[in-house]
Design a protein that fits this description.
alpha/beta; Rossmann fold; Arc Repressor Mutant, subunit A; 5-stranded parallel sheet; 4-stranded antiparallel sheet; 8 helices; 11 strands; elongated; transcription cis-regulatory region binding; WH-like_DNA-bd_sf; phosphoprotein
């Protein structure tokens, strides 16, 4: 899952960015409203964590512009503006949820997970296929019902394919799932993580489609 963090405070931004990445999310961070608008036009995100008090363009303006384009990406407003009128204004502008700073990180993560599940049409967070299951809410994985240790990047590569068995993902599509992490994505990053997943899940769980990419077969 890829999240856009829109936050102008350096201390908060760095802390939240580290938190999101520690929870297996790929995250990009911008610090003003103009940069947020540009990122939301150029890229596709699974969720936006949006501050309201931004330089160059207010967060409410960013939100209204986003919804005017009929973009339905979930938006969680996180701001120090705690007056009832501010909360109402944010929700009326198109926010899906609202959390007031300073917030508890566990609550923040719970709200993010809830919005992501809702947007995916899943009330139950479990993603499973054959003998492998992922729980995005707890970031637990299992193989044949037994706990399975996955690195954050192995998870990032496996999750989209497990959600859509039979769909071929190109290397570029899978690299995009790794984008936004602190380290640059190397040219053979996807191959490295697919190799690691095959060692854990079995050599036939992820198939290579020559010239196209990778797929988890339906059967």
């Amino acid at each position: 899952m890829r999240i856009l963090l829109v936050e102008d405070d350096l201390m908060i931004g760095n802390a939240v960015l580290d938190l999101l990445r520690s929870e297996h999310y790929a995250a990009d961070w911008v610090r003003d409203g103009v940069a947020a608008n540009a990122a939301l036009v150029a890229e596709r995100y699974d969720l936006v964590l949006l501050d309201l008090g931004l330089p160059k363009a207010d967060g409410l303006q960013v939100l209204r512009t986003l919804r005017a384009r009929r973009d339905t990406v979930p938006v969680l407003v996180a701001t120090a503006r705690d007056a009832k009128g501010d909360r109402v204004a944010g929700l009326d502008a198109g926010a899906d949820d609202y959390i007031v700073k300073p917030y508890d990180t566990d609550e923040l993560l719970a709200r993010i997970r809830a919005l992501l599940r809702r947007s995916a049409g899943r009330g139950e967070p479990l993603i499973s296929h054959k003998n492998v299951a992922l729980n995005p809410a707890t970031h637990e994985a299992s193989l044949n019902g037994q706990p399975l240790a996955l690195s954050a990047r192995e998870w990032a590569v496996l999750e989209p394919m497990l959600q859509r068995p039979g769909v071929v993902f190109s290397r570029a599509q899978l690299e995009e799932k790794l984008y936004g992490w602190k380290d640059e994505v190397s040219s053979n990053a996807v191959e490295v993580y697919v190799h690691g997943l095959r060692k854990k899940l079995g050599s036939d769980f992820i198939k290579t489609v020559r010239g196209l990419g990778y797929v988890i077969p339906r059967e």
